[in-house]
Amino acid sequence: MLAGFVALSVVALVSMGAAAFSQLAARSEQLATEQARIAFAEADRLRRLEAEARARAEASHARVVRGAASFAAETIAREVSAIGRVLQAEAASPLASETLAAAVASPDDPRARKALQDWLESVSRLHEATVISSNWFVTGPDGTQLARAPFGGSVGQNFAYRDYFHGLGRDLDPAEAARLEQEGRLEMVRGLHQTLVYRSVATGNPMTTFSIPISDPTDPDGSALGVLGLSVEIGDFDVLRTGADSDLVAMLVDTRVDATGTAGLILQHPALSALGPDPLRRYLSPELVSRLVRLRSEVMLPLPGRDGQNPGLAIDPNFADPFVGPPDGLGLAAFHPVIARGPDGLRDTGWVVIVQGRRLRPAEE
Length: 365
Fold this sequence. Notes:
rod-shaped, six-stranded antiparallel sheet, five-stranded antiparallel sheet, Beta-Lactamase, alpha+beta, signal, Cache domain-containing protein
């Protein structure tokens, strides 16, 4: 009897212990499951926080890039607009037509030449703080440069072949210009004109020139006595300069077709200074140029229903820097046309500012 009772007790105790162990194992499993659930939830929360932080950083980065492109394009546009206003005002002044008429009528009279030179230098000084410029000049009706401020060796040379004189949109071969002039088919610019970028004879630097005719006030038909011009070195648009440690790369592009028949000439880029003697012949891809041309058209002919959005701003999240290329050169870029304003409304320069921010790197673990 006693032995049987002990055996039953042992069995009961073992059963109780097994049940307790089973309950403990179940609770341990539940606890492990709960801890795993909490760990996964925390990892998911951290991933969401990291994604939100990344999204905020990318949004902030995009705002910086967009803002930089808009600021640079609008700053250049204001400078171009100021140049246009000044040229229009000076070309219309009686002193301009009087001094130029005298110099043209008496080409061998040093006093007439000096009066024109003095007038041009006074104009240059007057607007020194108002507009950026490399030089001012006046040409006669045949394209001969009669005055330059500052005075230089180009005075006396003939520039009838230059786009800033005839406004045909490209420089002519000098022989072609002479032939057209002999045939009476080479005319002076008819209004405010901006040239394609070219290399200056005087300095060799890439430049653009803004020119306008000086009309004869005594002629009822308003025939031109000559051309007043103001040249600007592309590098003088210093709003595009970024420091070596900057995360932004700014460039200026001309989307108009140049003398080579190609559009998309890169006018300014931090890498251009290291390219050797001819940094002008670097172009964007035709596909990107087509996109930028459409963007310019949207600004000049804004489409309805934009709800206040900036029609002149476009974004490319995977723009490849033409001087670096992928993968290091990939990053978000903003494009903004340079649209000047004048008395006659908007004036398309053909230029587009591109500002690229380097691709954001993942946070280090």
